[in-house]
Give the backbone structure.
Amino acid sequence: MADRLTSEQRHRCMSNIRSSNTKPEIYVRQSLWQHGFRYRLNSKNLSGKPDIVLKKYNTVIFVHGCFWHGHSCKYAKIPATNTEFWEQKILSNKKRDENVIKQLEQQGWKVIVIWQCQLKKAQRDITISSLIKEIQENGK
Ligand SMILES: [Zn+2]
C-alpha cells in the first residue's frame, strides 16, 4: 500500500515536471479523441512544436500555461520577488509565442491557443465544445 502511494506520488511529480505531458493537454487530447478527432502530438517539424496537430483540419493547437505564456488572467500574476526577471522572462515567452503563431499561419495552419484557466472545471465543457466547433470550421 505504501509503495503504491509512493509511486503514484512520484508519477504525479514527474508529470508536473515534464513540460510536454501536462494535465490540461491530456484533457484536451482525450476530449478530442472521444469526439472522434485523430491527431499527432508535439510535431517536431512544426515551429513551436504544437501540442496537437490535426492535419485533416489544417489546425494546430497549443495548450498554454497561463503563467509561462503571460495570459491576462488572475493565474498569471508576476511574483513579488525578482519581479523584473519574471517580467522579462514572460515577455520573451510571449514574443516567441507570437512569432511561432505567425510562422505557422504563414505556412497555412490555423492556430488555436487554449489557456489553462479555460480548462478549470467550471469552464471546461464550454471550452471544449467551442474548440470542436472551431476545428470543424477550419476543416471546411
Ligand atoms: Zn489564464
About this structure: DSSP finds four helices and four strands in the chain. The longest helix spans residues 83-106.
